[in-house]
């Protein structure tokens, strides 16, 4: 991979045609694209094209004036082509517009998680095969679902095209996955590869062969059907010998020449299908096949079938005659070049191994023959298949990554190969690095989707080196649309010990609730996030609110603060103060009085609230025939009152007294009077007791 | 796969800057018409303008969002030499007649600069509510709101002279390193021998110090500069928009005698833009994609592969139409894949892949 040079010339040429025309920067370039150069020059007279990135895998593109730092009034005449349009371009690593693909994403996520569990305990190759099949089932269901979605009549034309494109892609990925499974994941005994490949070809034939066969057989005289011989060849290449024999019984030539029919039928009956190799050595199997092959050749050389050219060709295929495989009627009967490949392998080298160089040579030859015959060039997809057959697993991964807007295949396949150890055997020390790189790409692609952030995070949690950093930076970016979602996020943060991120989420929510005027919710988030500063701020706001209105806003939260009061002194004060009000309303005046005194003397009350609290004592002081505060308490209260009076700024500037100050002054003298009276009665009371 | 959306701003003049909020669900634009416009994504994923107001008495160069921990706060800088701090007033949202309209209130105006303020950026969240500005007179100013609940107090904490007109700045997002700011200059005069200066905050005594000037790497005026998000790396990655784009690695190499970080500057890549002036460099959230805007009117997306090799993976025209034929995102930077890709698309007639890959 790294040994292949990056073709700079190609890149230069393509980007020159892409940006060169009209931009003035490649003056000597031919203006190839008239339309493109027009839009480009328009953009240029407008100004500089700029951009900003969006966390949701998109960028905003806009046009700014050139003379950025000149006086804004001087250049106004230039801007005739003013455009204030913005373009937001989003990219995605997996298109999730259809339910079927979303189902694939969630199913494969479940399989992925299970697989990682197994991997932790040491990997058994059979487990890999099992999960490879499960992924394939999910892929198959996805294609079935897409097929079904295509039939929806309400679809717009472009939507239909989109789904059809997805269908085509996932069907082909299924073909590729199956092949990769056979070549890189299964552990096959010698001779079994061909059976697996036949299975592969038959499975992805999508029932097409059966349809044609049934069509041919349904006629009165099947051998006159135009596809008769074509389907015979096709079945032969697919190794479906029984069907071939059945079809041949309809041939009028065979009916007339019983001997010929018996001859070919015998050859067909005896095709050595190596299904079970247990107890046989490679040499034994080879011998078995060689005997049969020689018999075919002998009968063909004997010109047994020369009376019927089609039958002769069929025998040629059985003999493994290369020239027969390149006959146009044989190529035409194949839907895909790899149908041809597998057929050829079956009759020329049935014991081929996935690592044999021959496999690659024959595959290349088949692809070339097929393309030359059809007059087309190989599609991207053909090169994926070819690379897989060349045993270049890394190339397959790379090509699929660079050709498809889809990270699903490469991330899951590479992870599986990584566990299987196939990346190590290809002598790539960066196996795990590649696997992680692709998982991260897939996860970040999923993350953009509003409902898949959890799935994305769980994929990232299996990326040992970088995953955590990606998790941390992404988890904060999940839009906090509902509180349920936020709680889910916080639980997730706790699970992965992302404390800082969880706190940040709480702070954002606390701030937002406060902004919306929902103080109780704000305080709840604050406590959840253990944000002492903001809790103190909110506690003050609560008290301010009480001061201005005379009652508490949202009471419920204050009554259930519990341990949370430890977060901030202010909160503890608020909670105690609330207790005081409760005791007072229940008529427990002594308890209320004690709370008030302890609030004022313990130092947890801010000085600016002292006067308010003292004012609260007035009703307690005025209860007839009752002395709530002892003389010692009263002294304390008087002391505090004196302190307020001393530190008040208005005491020395009599001329600047505002109505607010006057109110305070009145309050203070009223309090002093009440306290002194209380002191008097408490002293009297004490005397009496003595 | 790319999808493109068009938004028509109601500015009366060209837009200078746009900025997404932390979640990418709000958007602010600013313009020569001296106004700022705010957009919100509605439940149908459509952008709706929710506020527009006159914010300065000159062109508004840049607009930027504070972290949502600090509320819904915007900062703008302008040709009128001021920086303004705006907060969304939610009470208005409740009582106002139209529920979709919001009201933004000027919380503070920072008037210390004597020349046009060219860039303004909030510090990364872990540093608290801080703001850095740079202006044409070559001053880097750092403000801090000591009480995050009081957005009207923004004492000027530090003023640093860069001696040359500054055009752009970027905060180092790393939590594991001391606070760091990098500034760039687009002063074309010969006097500007260095176009990039690095400042670091030292705790004792508490001040910012010019710890490094990058020389011998960038020889042209610098239009934009951006630290990549730090995902646990010990070194810092920078993208510099000048003539072409330079990727620079800053590797901390211990401290000198006065306790300041020593940096080793490495230049692992230069991203070719055919010698065009590049106006803007922006990283995605995870720092895996770098988007650039160049003088040829093209937006390019660059990506490093798992072995750190950089490659342009796609480009767009100014109207958002895609100009590269390759579908993305490819496994970028895998050279063999690219060369075979080009070879394949040269062969060309794949109806299937055109259908799938076309954007």
TrEMBL record, chain A:
This is Nuclear pore complex protein Nup85. One of its GO terms (biological process) is mRNA export from nucleus. PANTHER family: FROUNT PROTEIN-RELATED, NUCLEAR PORE COMPLEX PROTEIN NUP85. It is found in: Nucleus, Nuclear pore complex. It comes from the Eukaryota. Belongs to the nucleoporin Nup85 family. Keywords: Membrane, mRNA transport, Nuclear pore complex, Nucleus, Protein transport, Translocation, Transport. InterPro entries: Nucleoporin_Nup85. GO terms for cellular component: nuclear membrane; nuclear pore outer ring. Functions as a component of the nuclear pore complex (NPC). Component of the nuclear pore complex (NPC). The keyword Nucleus applies. The keyword Oxidoreductase does not apply. One of its GO terms (molecular function) is structural constituent of nuclear pore. Signal peptide: none annotated. Residues 1-40 are annotated as: Disordered. It holds the Pfam family Nucleopor_Nup85. Its main location: nucleus. It comes from Amphimedon queenslandica (Sponge). Residues 1-11 have a biased composition (Acidic residues).
From TrEMBL, chain B:
One of its GO terms (biological process) is protein transport. GO terms for cellular component: lysosome; nuclear pore outer ring; Seh1-associated complex. SMART domains: WD40. PANTHER family: NUCLEAR PORE COMPLEX PROTEIN SEC13 / SEH1 FAMILY MEMBER, NUCLEOPORIN SEH1. Keywords: Cell cycle, Cell division, Lysosome, Mitosis, Nucleus, Protein transport, Repeat, Transport, WD repeat. It holds the Pfam family WD40. Belongs to the WD repeat SEC13 family. This is Uncharacterized protein. GO terms for molecular function: structural molecule activity. Coiled coil: none annotated. SUPFAM superfamilies: WD40 repeat-like. It comes from the Eukaryota. Its main location: other. It is found in: Lysosome; Nucleus envelope. The keyword Nucleus applies. PROSITE patterns: WD_REPEATS_1, WD_REPEATS_2, WD_REPEATS_REGION. Gene3D superfamilies: YVTN repeat-like/Quinoprotein amine dehydrogenase. The keyword rRNA-binding does not apply. WD repeats lie at residues 8-49, 53-87. It comes from Amphimedon queenslandica (Sponge).
């Amino acid at each position: 991979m790294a040994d292949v040079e990056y073709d700079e010339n190609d890149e230069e040429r393509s980007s020159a045609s892409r940006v060169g025309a009209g931009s003035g920067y490649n003056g000597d370039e031919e203006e190839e694209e008239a339309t493109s150069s027009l839009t480009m020059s328009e953009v240029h007279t407008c100004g500089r094209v700029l951009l900003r990135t969006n966390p949701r895998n998109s960028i905003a593109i806009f046009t700014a004036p050139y003379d950025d730092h000149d006086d804004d009034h001087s250049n106004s005449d230039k801007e005739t082509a003013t455009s204030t349009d913005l373009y937001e371009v989003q990219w995605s690593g997996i298109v999730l517009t259809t339910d079927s693909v979303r189902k694939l994403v969630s199913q494969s996520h479940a399989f992925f998680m299970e697989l990682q569990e197994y991997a932790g305990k040491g990997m058994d190759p059979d487990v890999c095969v099992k999960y490879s099949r499960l992924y394939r089932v999910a892929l198959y269901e996805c294609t079935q679902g897409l097929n079904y979605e295509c039939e929806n009549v309400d679809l717009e034309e472009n939507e239909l095209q989109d789904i059809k494109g997805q269908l085509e892609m996932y069907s082909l990925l299924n073909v590729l996955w199956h092949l990769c499974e056979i070549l890189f994941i299964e552990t096959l005994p010698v001779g079994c590869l061909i059976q697996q490949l036949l299975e592969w070809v038959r499975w992805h034939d999508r029932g097409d062969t059966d349809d044609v066969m049934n069509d041919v057989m349904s006629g009165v005289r099947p051998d006159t059907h135009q596809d008769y011989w074509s389907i015979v060849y096709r079945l032969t290449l697919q190794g479906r010998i029984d069907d071939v024999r059945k079809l041949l019984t309809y041939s009028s030539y065979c009916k007339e020449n019983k001997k010929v029919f018996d001859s070919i039928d015998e050859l067909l009956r005896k095709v050595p299908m190596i299904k079970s190799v247990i107890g046989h050595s490679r040499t034994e199997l080879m011998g078995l096949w060689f005997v049969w092959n020689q018999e075919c050749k002998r009968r063909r050389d004997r010109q047994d079938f020369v009376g019927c050219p089609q039958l002769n060709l069929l025998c040629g295929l059985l003999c493994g005659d290369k020239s027969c495989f390149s006959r146009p009627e044989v190529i035409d009967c194949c839907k895909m070049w790899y149908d041809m490949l597998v057929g050829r392998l079956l009759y020329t080298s049935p014991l081929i191994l996935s690592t044999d160089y021959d496999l690659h040579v024959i595959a290349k030859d088949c692809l070339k023959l097929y393309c030359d015959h059809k007059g087309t060039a190989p599609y991207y997809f053909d090169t994926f298949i070819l690379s897989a057959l060349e045993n270049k697993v890394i190339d397959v991964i790379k090509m699929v990554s660079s050709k498809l807007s889809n990270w699903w295949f490469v991330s899951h396949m590479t992870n599986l190969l990584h566990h299987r150890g196939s990346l190590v055997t290809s002598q790539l020390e960066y196996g795990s690095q590649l696997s992680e790189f692709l998982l991260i790409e897939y996860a970040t692609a999923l993350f953009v989707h509003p409902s898949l952030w959890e799935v994305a995070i769980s994929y990232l949690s299996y990326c040992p080196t970088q995953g955590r950093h990606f998790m941390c930076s992404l988890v904060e970016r999940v839009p906090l649309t509902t509180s349920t979602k936020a709680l889910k996020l916080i639980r997730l943060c706790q699970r992965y010990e992302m404390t800082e991120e969880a706190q940040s989420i709480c702070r954002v929510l606390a701030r937002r609730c406060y902004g919306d005027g929902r103080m109780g919710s704000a305080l709840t988030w604050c406590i959840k996030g253990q944000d002492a500063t903001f809790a103190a701020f909110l506690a003050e706001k609560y008290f301010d609110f009480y001061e201005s209105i005379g009652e508490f806003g949202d009471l419920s939260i204050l009554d259930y603060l519990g341990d949370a009061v430890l977060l901030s002194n202010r909160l503890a004060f608020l909670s105690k103060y609330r207790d005081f009000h409760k005791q007072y309303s229940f008529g427990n005046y002594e308890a209320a009085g004690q709370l008030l005194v302890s609030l004022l003397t313990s130092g947890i009350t801010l000085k600016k609230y002292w006067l308010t609290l003292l004012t609260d004592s007035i009703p307690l002081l005025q209860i007839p025939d009752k002395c709530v505060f002892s003389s010692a308490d009263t002294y304390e209260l008087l002391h505090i009152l004196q302190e307020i009076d001393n530190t008040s700024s208005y005491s020395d500037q009599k001329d600047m007294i505002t109505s607010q100050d006057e109110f305070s002054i009145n309050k203070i003298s009223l309090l002093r009077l009440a306290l002194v009276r209380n002191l008097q009665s408490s002293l009297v009371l004490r005397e009496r007791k003595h | 796969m790319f999808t493109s959306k068009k938004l028509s701003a109601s500015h009366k003049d060209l837009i200078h800057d746009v900025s997404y909020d932390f979640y990418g669900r709000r958007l602010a634009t600013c313009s020569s018409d001296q106004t700022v416009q705010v957009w919100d994504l509605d439940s149908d994923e459509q952008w709706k303008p929710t506020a527009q107001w006159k914010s300065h008495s000159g062109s508004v160069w840049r607009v930027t969002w504070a972290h949502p921990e600090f509320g819904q706060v915007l900062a703008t800088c302008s040709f009128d030499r001021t920086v303004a701090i705006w907060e969304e007033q939610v009470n208005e949202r409740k009582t106002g007649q139209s529920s979709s309209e919001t009201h933004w209130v000027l919380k503070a105006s920072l008037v210390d600069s004597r020349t046009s303020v060219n860039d303004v950026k909030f510090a990364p969240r872990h540093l608290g509510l801080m703001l850095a500005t740079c202006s044409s007179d070559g001053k880097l100013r750092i403000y801090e709101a000591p009480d995050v609940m009081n957005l009207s107090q923004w004492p000027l904490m530090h003023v640093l002279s860069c001696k040359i007109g500054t055009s752009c700045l970027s905060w180092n997002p790393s939590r594991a390193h001391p606070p760091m700011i990098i500034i760039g200059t687009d002063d074309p005069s010969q006097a500007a021998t260095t176009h990039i200066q690095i400042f670091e905050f030292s705790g004792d005594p508490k001040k910012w110090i010019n710890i490094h000037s990058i020389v011998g790497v960038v020889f042209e005026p610098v239009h934009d500069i951006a630290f990549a998000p730090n995902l646990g790396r010990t070194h810092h990655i920078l993208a510099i928009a000048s003539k072409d784009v330079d990727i620079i690695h800053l590797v901390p190499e211990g401290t000198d005698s006065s306790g300041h970080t020593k940096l080793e500057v490495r230049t692992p890549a230069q991203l070719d833009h055919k010698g065009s002036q590049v106006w803007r460099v922006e990283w995605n959230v995870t720092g895996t994609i770098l988007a650039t805007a160049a003088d040829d009117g093209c937006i390019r997306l660059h990506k490093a592969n798992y072995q750190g090799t950089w490659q342009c993976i796609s480009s767009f025209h100014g109207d958002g139409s895609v100009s590269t034929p390759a579908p993305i995102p490819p496994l970028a930077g895998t050279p063999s894949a690219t060369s075979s890709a080009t070879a394949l698309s040269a062969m060309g007639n794949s109806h299937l892949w055109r259908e799938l890959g076309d954007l």
